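# step 3/5: fold
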Amino acid sequence: MWSGIERDALVRALLATDPQTPTLCEGWQARHLAAHLYLRRHRPWAMGQLSSVAERAADPAAYLDVVAEFAAPVPARSPLALLDRSDAANLAEYVIHHEDLRRGEAAGAGAVAREFPAEMTAAVLAQLRVFSMRMLRGCPVGVVLATPAGISRVVRTGPAPVTIRGTAADLALALAGRLRAAHVRWVGPPRAIEALRHQLH
C-alpha cells in the first residue's frame, strides 16, 4: 500500500519540521498542514475545526501531539478504515502535501527531487489521471504526463497536446497548481502551453 509508505514518510517530515515553517499552501504553516491531515484521516466531519487545531499546534509540544494523532492507525472497525487503506483516495494527497512541506520555505528552489520506485510512480500516475479530470475540466488542449524514466500517461485528449515532463512528485505538484515549485518541463506548442499553465494556475 503505497499511500501508507508515503504517509509514514510524511509523518517523519512533519516531526522534523518546526510548526511555524511555511508550506506551499498559501497562508499555511506546518501546523496547519498537520491539523488538516489529522482531521482528514480521523475526523473528516470536523474539518471546520482546522483553525482551532492549528492554533493549538502552534505550541511545539502540542504540534507533536497533533502529528502523533495523524499517525495513529484508524481502528479496523471504523467506517473510515476502508478509505484509509485506499491508494486511490490518499496517495496523491500525501505526495502533494509532503512536497508542500519539503518545498515550502524556498518555493522548491532547494528541494532535491525524490525518486519513487517504478511501481509507486505508476500508482501515482494512475491516480493523477483521475485527479486531472477535475483539475483539467474545460482545458482546451490535450495533456500527457511523462517521467524521466520514460513512463507516460495521456490524462486528457484534445488538440495541440502538451507534455508535462518531471518526476511523479513534480507532476503531482504541477497538476495541483503549485507551478512555482514544480520542477517540470513543458513540451508542446507555445500557445497550448500557455493555455494549460493558465488552467492550472
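# step 4/5: annotate
The chain is about 50% helix and 10% strand.
# step 5/5: archive (pending)
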